[in-house]
Amino acid sequence: MSGRKLVSFDWAMKKLLRSKANFEVLEGFLSELLREPITIIDILEGEGNKESRIDKTNRLDLKTKNAKNEIIIIEVQYEREFDYFQRILYSSSKTLTEHLSEGQPYSDIVKVISVSILYFDLGHGEDYVYLGRTRFKGIHHNDELKLSPNQQQLFTKQFPHELYPEYYLIKVNSFDDVARNTLDEWIYFLKNGEIKDGFKAQGLKRAKEVFDIMKLPDQERRKYDRYSEDLHYQASMVESSYGVGKIEGRKEGRTEGRAEGRTEGRAEVARNMLAEGLETSFIAKITGLSPDEIETLRNKS
Protein backbone atom coordinates (compact mmCIF):
# COMPACT_ATOMS: atom_id res chain seq x y z
CA MET A 1 0.00 0.00 0.00
CA SER A 2 2.74 2.47 0.94
CA GLY A 3 4.34 2.23 -2.51
CA ARG A 4 1.27 3.44 -4.38
CA LYS A 5 1.63 6.35 -6.77
CA LEU A 6 -2.15 6.53 -7.14
CA VAL A 7 -4.63 6.73 -4.29
CA SER A 8 -6.89 3.73 -3.76
CA PHE A 9 -10.35 3.68 -5.27
CA ASP A 10 -12.08 3.67 -1.88
CA TRP A 11 -10.24 6.81 -0.81
CA ALA A 12 -11.09 8.43 -4.12
CA MET A 13 -14.78 7.64 -3.60
CA LYS A 14 -14.67 9.47 -0.28
CA LYS A 15 -12.61 12.47 -1.31
CA LEU A 16 -12.42 12.90 -5.08
CA LEU A 17 -15.21 11.23 -7.03
CA ARG A 18 -18.07 13.14 -5.43
CA SER A 19 -17.16 16.16 -7.55
CA LYS A 20 -19.02 16.48 -10.86
CA ALA A 21 -15.69 17.32 -12.45
CA ASN A 22 -14.63 13.73 -11.78
CA PHE A 23 -17.86 11.93 -12.74
CA GLU A 24 -16.03 10.80 -15.86
CA VAL A 25 -14.04 8.33 -13.73
CA LEU A 26 -17.12 6.73 -12.16
CA GLU A 27 -18.94 6.70 -15.48
CA GLY A 28 -16.02 4.93 -17.11
CA PHE A 29 -15.78 2.25 -14.42
CA LEU A 30 -19.52 1.58 -14.41
CA SER A 31 -19.77 1.61 -18.21
CA GLU A 32 -17.09 -1.07 -18.43
CA LEU A 33 -18.70 -3.17 -15.67
CA LEU A 34 -22.32 -2.87 -16.83
CA ARG A 35 -21.37 -2.97 -20.52
CA GLU A 36 -23.51 0.00 -21.46
CA PRO A 37 -22.95 3.78 -21.47
CA ILE A 38 -23.53 5.19 -17.97
CA THR A 39 -24.09 8.87 -17.24
CA ILE A 40 -23.99 9.93 -13.58
CA ILE A 41 -26.25 12.87 -12.79
CA ASP A 42 -26.00 12.99 -9.01
CA ILE A 43 -24.27 11.65 -5.90
CA LEU A 44 -26.87 10.77 -3.28
CA GLU A 45 -26.46 11.00 0.47
CA GLY A 46 -25.55 7.68 2.06
CA GLU A 47 -24.03 6.40 5.27
CA GLY A 48 -21.22 8.50 6.67
CA ASN A 49 -17.81 7.13 5.85
CA LYS A 50 -15.18 6.66 8.52
CA GLU A 51 -11.53 7.58 8.49
CA SER A 52 -10.47 4.42 10.33
CA ARG A 53 -11.07 0.85 9.22
CA ILE A 54 -12.00 -0.21 12.78
CA ASP A 55 -14.78 2.32 13.23
CA LYS A 56 -18.31 0.94 13.42
CA THR A 57 -18.81 1.20 9.67
CA ASN A 58 -16.01 -0.75 7.98
CA ARG A 59 -17.12 -0.18 4.40
CA LEU A 60 -17.16 2.79 2.08
CA ASP A 61 -20.37 3.53 0.22
CA LEU A 62 -21.08 5.70 -2.76
CA LYS A 63 -24.67 5.99 -3.94
CA THR A 64 -25.28 7.50 -7.35
CA LYS A 65 -28.17 8.12 -9.71
CA ASN A 66 -27.70 7.74 -13.44
CA ALA A 67 -29.51 9.28 -16.39
CA LYS A 68 -31.95 6.32 -16.48
CA ASN A 69 -33.04 7.14 -12.90
CA GLU A 70 -31.38 3.98 -11.62
CA ILE A 71 -29.66 3.95 -8.24
CA ILE A 72 -26.16 2.47 -8.24
CA ILE A 73 -24.57 1.59 -4.90
CA ILE A 74 -20.80 1.04 -4.84
CA GLU A 75 -19.23 -0.57 -1.78
CA VAL A 76 -15.62 -1.41 -1.00
CA GLN A 77 -15.18 -4.13 1.61
CA TYR A 78 -11.85 -5.27 3.07
CA GLU A 79 -12.69 -7.33 6.14
CA ARG A 80 -14.43 -10.69 6.01
CA GLU A 81 -18.19 -10.64 6.60
CA PHE A 82 -19.84 -14.03 6.74
CA ASP A 83 -23.27 -12.46 6.29
CA TYR A 84 -22.25 -10.23 3.40
CA PHE A 85 -24.85 -11.69 1.03
CA GLN A 86 -27.60 -10.77 3.46
CA ARG A 87 -26.13 -7.31 4.01
CA ILE A 88 -26.17 -6.35 0.33
CA LEU A 89 -29.75 -7.62 0.15
CA TYR A 90 -30.65 -5.40 3.10
CA SER A 91 -28.81 -2.44 1.56
CA SER A 92 -30.63 -2.70 -1.76
CA SER A 93 -33.99 -3.22 -0.04
CA LYS A 94 -33.44 -0.19 2.15
CA THR A 95 -32.61 1.88 -0.91
CA LEU A 96 -35.85 0.77 -2.58
CA THR A 97 -37.95 1.92 0.36
CA GLU A 98 -36.03 5.18 0.77
CA HIS A 99 -36.86 6.18 -2.79
CA LEU A 100 -40.57 5.34 -2.74
CA SER A 101 -42.68 7.96 -1.02
CA GLU A 102 -45.99 7.26 0.69
CA GLY A 103 -48.80 7.17 -1.85
CA GLN A 104 -46.56 6.35 -4.81
CA PRO A 105 -47.51 3.24 -6.84
CA TYR A 106 -45.17 0.26 -6.83
CA SER A 107 -44.51 0.92 -10.50
CA ASP A 108 -42.43 3.93 -9.38
CA ILE A 109 -39.90 1.72 -7.57
CA VAL A 110 -36.41 2.51 -8.82
CA LYS A 111 -34.00 -0.01 -10.26
CA VAL A 112 -31.09 -0.63 -7.87
CA ILE A 113 -27.69 -1.88 -8.97
CA SER A 114 -25.34 -3.00 -6.20
CA VAL A 115 -21.61 -3.10 -6.98
CA SER A 116 -19.33 -4.70 -4.37
CA ILE A 117 -15.55 -4.41 -4.67
CA LEU A 118 -14.31 -7.15 -2.34
CA TYR A 119 -10.82 -7.68 -0.95
CA PHE A 120 -11.71 -10.93 0.80
CA ASP A 121 -12.87 -14.31 -0.48
CA LEU A 122 -16.67 -14.44 -0.54
CA GLY A 123 -18.30 -17.77 -1.23
CA HIS A 124 -16.72 -20.50 -3.34
CA GLY A 125 -16.22 -20.07 -7.09
CA GLU A 126 -13.62 -19.85 -9.84
CA ASP A 127 -14.48 -16.44 -11.35
CA TYR A 128 -13.57 -13.00 -10.07
CA VAL A 129 -16.68 -11.11 -11.29
CA TYR A 130 -20.17 -12.39 -10.53
CA LEU A 131 -23.59 -11.02 -11.52
CA GLY A 132 -26.71 -11.88 -9.54
CA ARG A 133 -30.23 -11.39 -10.93
CA THR A 134 -33.74 -12.53 -10.00
CA ARG A 135 -35.17 -14.66 -12.81
CA PHE A 136 -38.46 -16.56 -12.90
CA LYS A 137 -38.08 -19.99 -14.53
CA GLY A 138 -40.84 -22.51 -15.16
CA ILE A 139 -40.48 -25.65 -13.05
CA HIS A 140 -42.12 -27.79 -15.76
CA HIS A 141 -41.05 -26.24 -19.08
CA ASN A 142 -37.93 -24.38 -17.89
CA ASP A 143 -39.08 -21.27 -19.78
CA GLU A 144 -38.29 -17.79 -18.46
CA LEU A 145 -41.26 -15.61 -17.53
CA LYS A 146 -41.52 -12.41 -19.56
CA LEU A 147 -43.44 -9.23 -18.88
CA SER A 148 -46.78 -8.90 -20.63
CA PRO A 149 -46.98 -6.66 -23.74
CA ASN A 150 -48.63 -3.91 -21.67
CA GLN A 151 -45.97 -4.20 -18.97
CA GLN A 152 -43.23 -4.08 -21.59
CA GLN A 153 -44.71 -0.89 -22.99
CA LEU A 154 -45.06 0.67 -19.53
CA PHE A 155 -41.61 -0.22 -18.21
CA THR A 156 -39.70 -0.48 -21.52
CA LYS A 157 -38.33 -3.79 -20.23
CA GLN A 158 -38.77 -7.36 -21.42
CA PHE A 159 -38.11 -9.45 -18.30
CA PRO A 160 -38.93 -9.05 -14.57
CA HIS A 161 -35.23 -9.29 -13.64
CA GLU A 162 -34.70 -5.96 -15.40
CA LEU A 163 -36.95 -4.35 -12.76
CA TYR A 164 -35.34 -6.09 -9.78
CA PRO A 165 -32.05 -5.25 -8.04
CA GLU A 166 -28.87 -6.58 -9.62
CA TYR A 167 -25.71 -7.49 -7.73
CA TYR A 168 -22.16 -7.32 -9.08
CA LEU A 169 -19.43 -8.91 -6.97
CA ILE A 170 -15.82 -8.14 -7.91
CA LYS A 171 -13.46 -10.48 -6.03
CA VAL A 172 -10.31 -8.44 -6.46
CA ASN A 173 -7.86 -10.89 -4.89
CA SER A 174 -9.01 -13.69 -7.24
CA PHE A 175 -7.91 -11.69 -10.30
CA ASP A 176 -4.73 -13.11 -11.87
CA ASP A 177 -3.29 -9.73 -12.95
CA VAL A 178 -3.75 -10.50 -16.66
CA ALA A 179 -5.84 -7.74 -18.26
CA ARG A 180 -7.69 -9.52 -21.08
CA ASN A 181 -10.21 -6.72 -21.68
CA THR A 182 -11.01 -3.19 -20.57
CA LEU A 183 -12.95 -4.32 -17.47
CA ASP A 184 -9.87 -6.30 -16.43
CA GLU A 185 -7.83 -3.10 -16.76
CA TRP A 186 -10.04 -1.53 -14.10
CA ILE A 187 -9.77 -4.59 -11.86
CA TYR A 188 -5.99 -4.53 -12.28
CA PHE A 189 -6.03 -0.98 -10.93
CA LEU A 190 -8.35 -1.94 -8.07
CA LYS A 191 -5.94 -4.70 -7.06
CA ASN A 192 -2.56 -3.08 -7.69
CA GLY A 193 -3.16 0.68 -7.50
CA GLU A 194 -1.50 1.06 -10.91
CA ILE A 195 -2.75 2.12 -14.34
CA LYS A 196 -0.45 0.93 -17.09
CA ASP A 197 0.35 3.18 -20.04
CA GLY A 198 -1.33 0.87 -22.55
CA PHE A 199 -4.66 0.66 -20.71
CA LYS A 200 -7.60 2.01 -22.70
CA ALA A 201 -10.63 1.41 -20.46
CA GLN A 202 -13.12 4.23 -20.13
CA GLY A 203 -12.33 6.55 -17.23
CA LEU A 204 -8.81 5.31 -16.55
CA LYS A 205 -7.06 8.18 -18.30
CA ARG A 206 -8.91 10.67 -16.12
CA ALA A 207 -8.38 8.45 -13.06
CA LYS A 208 -4.63 8.49 -13.62
CA GLU A 209 -4.71 12.28 -13.39
CA VAL A 210 -7.19 12.58 -10.52
CA PHE A 211 -5.70 9.81 -8.34
CA ASP A 212 -2.10 11.06 -8.49
CA ILE A 213 -0.94 11.16 -4.87
CA MET A 214 1.58 13.91 -5.58
CA LYS A 215 -1.23 16.22 -6.71
CA LEU A 216 -3.01 16.00 -3.37
CA PRO A 217 -2.71 18.98 -1.02
CA ASP A 218 -0.16 18.31 1.74
CA GLN A 219 -2.80 17.86 4.45
CA GLU A 220 -4.83 15.44 2.33
CA ARG A 221 -1.68 13.51 1.42
CA ARG A 222 -0.83 13.06 5.11
CA LYS A 223 -4.38 11.85 5.79
CA TYR A 224 -4.12 9.38 2.96
CA ASP A 225 -0.77 8.10 4.22
CA ARG A 226 -2.30 7.48 7.65
CA TYR A 227 -5.29 5.78 6.08
CA SER A 228 -3.05 3.51 3.97
CA GLU A 229 -0.94 2.57 6.99
CA ASP A 230 -4.08 1.77 8.99
CA LEU A 231 -5.45 -0.39 6.18
CA HIS A 232 -2.18 -2.28 5.86
CA TYR A 233 -2.05 -2.78 9.63
CA GLN A 234 -5.58 -4.18 9.72
CA ALA A 235 -4.80 -6.65 6.94
CA SER A 236 -1.67 -7.79 8.79
CA MET A 237 -3.56 -8.15 12.06
CA VAL A 238 -6.22 -10.35 10.49
CA GLU A 239 -3.65 -12.49 8.68
CA SER A 240 -1.44 -12.86 11.77
CA SER A 241 -4.35 -13.64 14.05
CA TYR A 242 -5.69 -16.27 11.70
CA GLY A 243 -2.24 -17.86 11.52
CA VAL A 244 -1.90 -18.06 15.29
CA GLY A 245 -5.44 -19.32 15.59
CA LYS A 246 -4.87 -22.11 13.11
CA ILE A 247 -1.69 -23.22 14.88
CA GLU A 248 -3.36 -23.19 18.31
CA GLY A 249 -6.39 -24.91 16.85
CA ARG A 250 -4.28 -27.72 15.41
CA LYS A 251 -2.45 -28.16 18.74
CA GLU A 252 -5.66 -28.33 20.71
CA GLY A 253 -7.28 -30.48 18.06
CA ARG A 254 -4.58 -33.15 18.40
CA THR A 255 -4.90 -33.34 22.17
CA GLU A 256 -8.51 -32.52 22.93
CA GLY A 257 -10.46 -33.14 19.75
CA ARG A 258 -11.16 -31.14 16.64
CA ALA A 259 -14.22 -29.28 17.92
CA GLU A 260 -12.45 -28.03 21.05
CA GLY A 261 -9.38 -27.17 18.98
CA ARG A 262 -11.37 -25.00 16.61
CA THR A 263 -13.03 -23.21 19.53
CA GLU A 264 -9.69 -22.53 21.21
CA GLY A 265 -8.26 -21.36 17.90
CA ARG A 266 -11.01 -18.77 17.51
CA ALA A 267 -10.54 -17.71 21.11
CA GLU A 268 -6.81 -17.21 20.54
CA VAL A 269 -7.55 -15.04 17.50
CA ALA A 270 -9.97 -12.98 19.61
CA ARG A 271 -7.43 -12.57 22.42
CA ASN A 272 -4.82 -11.30 19.98
CA MET A 273 -7.26 -8.79 18.55
CA LEU A 274 -8.39 -7.66 22.00
CA ALA A 275 -4.74 -7.05 22.89
CA GLU A 276 -4.55 -4.69 19.92
CA GLY A 277 -7.61 -2.76 21.08
CA LEU A 278 -9.93 -3.79 18.25
CA GLU A 279 -13.69 -3.44 18.65
CA THR A 280 -15.91 -6.33 19.74
CA SER A 281 -18.11 -6.08 16.62
CA PHE A 282 -15.09 -6.37 14.32
CA ILE A 283 -13.66 -9.33 16.27
CA ALA A 284 -17.02 -11.09 16.15
CA LYS A 285 -17.14 -10.80 12.35
CA ILE A 286 -13.66 -12.23 11.98
CA THR A 287 -13.86 -15.08 14.50
CA GLY A 288 -17.51 -16.06 14.50
CA LEU A 289 -17.62 -15.76 18.30
CA SER A 290 -20.58 -14.01 19.90
CA PRO A 291 -20.12 -10.56 21.49
CA ASP A 292 -20.77 -12.13 24.91
CA GLU A 293 -18.01 -14.70 24.38
CA ILE A 294 -15.60 -11.96 23.35
CA GLU A 295 -16.48 -9.83 26.38
CA THR A 296 -15.84 -12.85 28.60
CA LEU A 297 -12.37 -13.19 27.06
CA ARG A 298 -11.81 -9.47 27.56
CA ASN A 299 -12.67 -9.71 31.26
CA LYS A 300 -10.32 -12.67 31.71
CA SER A 301 -7.36 -10.94 30.07
Find the count of extended strands (DSSP E, 2+ residues): 6
Q: What series of H and E elements makes up the topology?
A: HHEEEHEEHEHHHHHH
Number of domains: 2
Q: Describe the global form.
A: globular
Determine the fraction of residues in helical runs and give it as a percent range: 40-55%
Question: Low-confidence runs (pLDDT<50, min 5 residues)?
Answer: 47-58
The residue-averaged pLDDT reads: 82
How many helix segments?
Answer: 10
Task: Measure the end-to-end span.
Answer: 33 Å
**Structural class of the secondary structure composition?**
alpha/beta
Quote the beta fraction: 5-15%
What does the largest sheet look like? 6 strands, mixed
**Order of strands across the main sheet:** 1-2-3-4-6-5
Oligomer: single chain
User: What would you report as the Rg, rounded to the nearest angstrom?
Assistant: 22 Å
Gist of the model:
Helices cover 45% and strands 12% of the residues. The protein is built from ten helices and six strands. A hairpin with a 4-residue loop joins strand 2 (59-66) and strand 3.
What does this structure look like?
The protein is α/β, with parallel strands linked by helices and 301 residues long. The protein has 2 domains: 9-215, no CATH class; 218-300, no CATH class. Helices cover 45% and strands 12% of the residues. It contains 10 helices and 6 strands; from the N terminus they run ααβββαββαβαααααα. It has helices spanning 9-15, 23-34, 84-98, 149-155, 182-192, 204-210, 218-256, 258-275, 280-287, 291-300; strands at residues 40-44, 59-66, 71-77, 112-118, 129-132, 166-171. The protein has a 6-stranded mixed β-sheet, with helices on both faces. Helix 3 (84-98) links the parallel strand 3 and strand 4 (112-118). Helix 2 (23-34) packs antiparallel against helix 6 (204-210). The protein is globular, with a radius of gyration of 22 Å. The two termini are 33 Å apart.
